[in-house]
Amino acid sequence: MAVIELPKIASNEELEAFSKVVSENIKRLRVAKGISQLDMALSIGQKGSGFYACAEACINSKRFNIFHLYKISKVLEVDICEFFKPIAE
């Protein structure tokens, strides 16, 4: 049986850059609202701030999933689209 070669949709670098934009926007909005990482983590159902801190900093291969993003947008009272906007240099 032949294996189908799928075209590469996005490079690892592109995916990392995308994750960084999302995480930086979340951090910016969280800090602006005066919410700690621990409070945000608990609000979205995490038991502590470990996963949240790593996902927000894009370290240890931790990333927010769509359900995290939805919950974070509710806590921050922003449209989820805010997370995907390019970072102003």
Q: What distinguishing features does this structure have?
A:
mainly alpha; 89 residues; 0% strand; single chain
Q: Report helical residue fraction.
A: 40-55%
Structural class: mainly alpha
Spans of at least 5 consecutive residues whose pLDDT stays below 50 are none
Please trace the helix and strand order, writing H or E for each element: HHHH
The biggest sheet amounts to:
none
Total DSSP helices:
4
Total beta strand runs? 0
| Cα Rg | 15 Å
Shape: globular
Mean pLDDT: 94
Strand content: under 5%
CA(first)-CA(last) distance: 50 Å
Describe this structure in words.
The chain has 89 residues and is mainly α. It has a domain at 37-81. It has four helices and no strands. The chain has helices at residues 12-32, 37-43, 50-57, 66-76. The longest helix is centred in the first third of the chain and has 21 residues, at 12-32. It is globular and about 55 Å long. The chain starts with 11 loop residues before the first helix and ends in a 13-residue tail after the last helix.
Short description:
The protein is mainly α and 89 residues long. It has a domain at 37-81.
Map the helices and strands.
Blueprint: H1 12-32, H2 37-43, H3 50-57, H4 66-76
Helix pairs in contact: 2-3
